[in-house]
Amino acid sequence: MARTPSSDRPDRGRGGERGDRPNRGRGGAEQTPREREESEFVDKLVHINRVAKVVKGGRRFAFAALVVVGDAKGRVGCGSGKAREVPEAIRKATEQAKRNMIKIALREGRTLHHDAFGHFGAGRVILRAAPAGTGIIAGGPMRAVFETMGVQDVVAKCLGTSNPHNMIKATFDALINLASPRHVAAKRGKKVGEIIGRRDGAAAAAAAGA
């Protein structure tokens, strides 16, 4: 006697419906907090240096990458990595940059609070706050730092060396020395309005004298 399939037995064939089975594919998977955080970062490759080592069988090449990473909201970091292949060197530099990120307070979310000076080795940089519409007036590695950090208006000048490593580190030295009006007010025991009013008054006096 032939067995008849039960009516309440689910159809497991290819043509049958899957029912309420969860979608286990990549398209249906949600991003983890770590993946979501990494997707917010913007990275820029600043410089790649190729080094050749002469061995018995010929020349052996290695690559060193310099990368700047930021979230376009005031956080930025730099890192360098070395490897036999370019992608691996960039990956190492990116991971190091994410570990070395710093938070910089921006004025109105677009420029610096005040002028700053930084130096590292033979590299010296000058950073100046700029009015709206100025744009990023900076060259080479310094532009990558401001773009990834989210700065929209700034005037920067590099004095001395043109080595990208020294320029980047001198720029970070200047950024670390920046202080927001809130930080200065808390340090001096005053109100934020007093600090901002004095700064605006000094700027107006300088403009009138010019």
UniProtKB/TrEMBL annotation:
NCBIfam families, per the entry:
rpsE_bact
Q: What is known of its domains?
A: The N-terminal domain interacts with the head of the 30S subunit; the C-terminal domain interacts with the body and contacts protein S4. The interaction surface between S4 and S5 is involved in control of translational fidelity.
The entry's keywords: Ribonucleoprotein, Ribosomal protein, RNA-binding, rRNA-binding
Q: Where is the S5 DRBM domain?
A: 41-104
Q: Which GO terms describe its biological process?
A: ribosome biogenesis; translation
GO terms for molecular function, please? rRNA binding; structural constituent of ribosome
Phylogenetic lineage: Bacteria, Pseudomonadati, Pseudomonadota, Alphaproteobacteria, Rhodospirillales
Q: What is this protein called?
A: Small ribosomal subunit protein uS5
The signal peptide, as residue positions, is none
Region annotated Disordered sits at 1-39
Subunit annotation = Part of the 30S ribosomal subunit. Contacts proteins S4 and S8.
Q: Which GO terms describe its cellular component?
A: cytoplasm; small ribosomal subunit
